[in-house]
Structure formats: structure tokens, C-alpha cells
Amino acid sequence: MRSTALLFFLAGTETSSAFITSLVYCMGRGVFDLDELRDEAVRDDYIEETLRLYPPVQTIVRFAAEDLTLQGVRVPRHSAVLASVAGANRDPRVFDHPERFETGRSRKGSIPFAVGAHACPGAMLAKTEFSLLIEEIVRRCSDVVVTRDRLGMESQSFSHPTDFSVEFRTK
After folding, report:
1. How many domains would you assign to the chain?
2. What secondary structure does DSSP assign to 23-52, as a single string?
């Protein structure tokens, strides 16, 4: 029980803090006028598109339940299979112009929280936290600006943008 509680705590805090960095980075790049993010539907779409482009978890491991062949490769039962969340979220067969930040696109195929039985149980809580954070930034700030941008990506445990500075301009 204790190990499960610790897992949920670490998974929730580390992934959320990594993703908040991505949210702020996109806000500072001027992807949206802050006033537009007052609208909950626009805010939700902004969060989904940021999750698609900058998922905090880049890869997930699953184990084959049975012997199978995956794109011509034999995978024995119990073998580890590494799935790229980031790759799936930028698949040009699923998303037109996958490298572009475009709200309003279909979310079909985007898997930042995984899917099915192994989907993240905290996904709705995380999205609510992100929405409330954006709401508070919009309430307090007239603008968010990236002032130094030599974007790198840190990806030791959870992926997030690095090597940039941001200025929060208060109202």
C-alpha cells in the first residue's frame, strides 16, 4: 500500500511539474493571446495541444501478453515493448503538420496519458490543475514572454523544456 501511494505521489508531482514548464514555455512563445485563455474550452484545447507536443512521459513500457508479430518483428510473450508517446503524438499519418502547435485539431490518436486499462488514473486531476494554473496566470498577468530561448529538452525521467527564461508581466 505504501509503495503504491508513493508511486502515485511521485508520478503526479514529477509529471505535473515537468508539464507546467511546457505550458509556461508555450504561453511565453505567444501561441495564444492570454485573454483567449480565459475561455475554458480554449484553455482545454490549449492544454491538449501542449500535451500532444510536449508530453511529460515520452515512452511507456508494456509487456507482450502473448507471442505476436508487430510490423514484421516477432515479439515473444512477456517481452518488454517500448512505446513512444512522443512519436505517436507527432505521427504524420495521424496529425497534419504534427510539429505545429494547432488547437482545434482532432484529439484522436493523441496519447499523453496512455489509453485503456493502463491509462493514467490522475489524468483528469492533472488537467484540472493545469486549467486552474492557466486561469490564475491569466488573472494576474497581462503577458507572459520568453526572454531567452535556446530551447533544449530535459528527459531524464520526465521530459520538459529547458534553457529558456520567461517573464511574467503583472497587471
Report:
1. 1
2. HHHHHHTTSS-GGGGGSHHHHHHHHHHHHH
